[in-house]
Amino acid sequence: MFPLLYQDLTVEIKEHEKQVDDTVESGLELMKSISNDEAIQLKEKLDSLQRRFGEVTTKAGDLLKNAQEALPLVTQFHDNHNNLSDWMMAAENTLKGLENTTVAAQEKEITRLEREIIEQRKVLEAINSIGPQLCQLSPGEGASTIEGLVTRDNRRFDAICEQVQRRAERIHMSKQRSMEVLGDIDDLLDWFRDIEGQIKDAEKPSCEPDVVRVQLLEHRTLNDEINSQKGRVRDVLATAKKVSYR
């Protein structure tokens, strides 16, 4: 848009070049037939006309050149900014929706976001690189606008990265706790099998008092061991419920 605008301006100035040249040529001819004082005044006006026209031509050329240099940078900047903004909005919505999902579903989404962060960081780096170049080409209000966009993009991206990292750590801790609970359950199952084997192999009460006393002592020991594990079983079951509902 801007290069076309400045190009139209340059063309318009160029169209007046012949008019300026003709005016100068006519003025020089006129100087031959007027007094010296009038000729001096006319010469000053002609010089001023040529000088101002030259300045306008140069400025218009500089504007066109700067606009042509800025256009690809402006296009790249806004394309990257829009793409990053779209991704950040989607990522923020994904993070908001994770609260009521299973650990497996959370892990899948977080893993995806971690991969996408790597790619989107390249987009942010391009924004951080192009932004200062545009600020140099367009100082003032334009630079302030670009700086504001760059600052907001960086803050928003960093906030998303922090949320993803925290969520990944929580998932890791949850999985680690789940593994610990599964290990405790496996230990208890092994213990159950051992106790069941001891109960199955236990002899029936003997008719001999001495043997019965020994059997009673063994049964009490076994019963004490079973009672000692009740608290552990309750704790493991309670922890398993907490882990399963996360």
Query: Structural class of the helix and strand makeup?
Result: mainly alpha
Q: List the secondary-structure elements in sequence, H or E.
A: HHHHHHH
CA distance, first residue to last residue: 54 Å
SS element count, helices: 7
Number of strands: 0
**C-alpha Rg (nearest Å):** 43 Å
Largest sheet, strands/sense/barrel? none
List its traits.
disordered N terminus; mainly alpha; 7 helices; rod-shaped; 246 residues; Methane Monooxygenase Hydroxylase, Chain G, domain 1
Write the layout of secondary structure elements.
Elements: H1 2-15, H2 17-31, H3 36-96, H4 103-137, H5 141-201, H6 209-228, H7 230-244
Q: Can you tell me about this structure?
A:
The model is unreliable at 1-6 (pLDDT under 50). The protein is mostly helical and 246 residues long. It has one domain (2-201): Methane Monooxygenase Hydroxylase, Chain G, domain 1 (Up-down Bundle), CATH 1.20.58. The protein has seven helices and no strands.
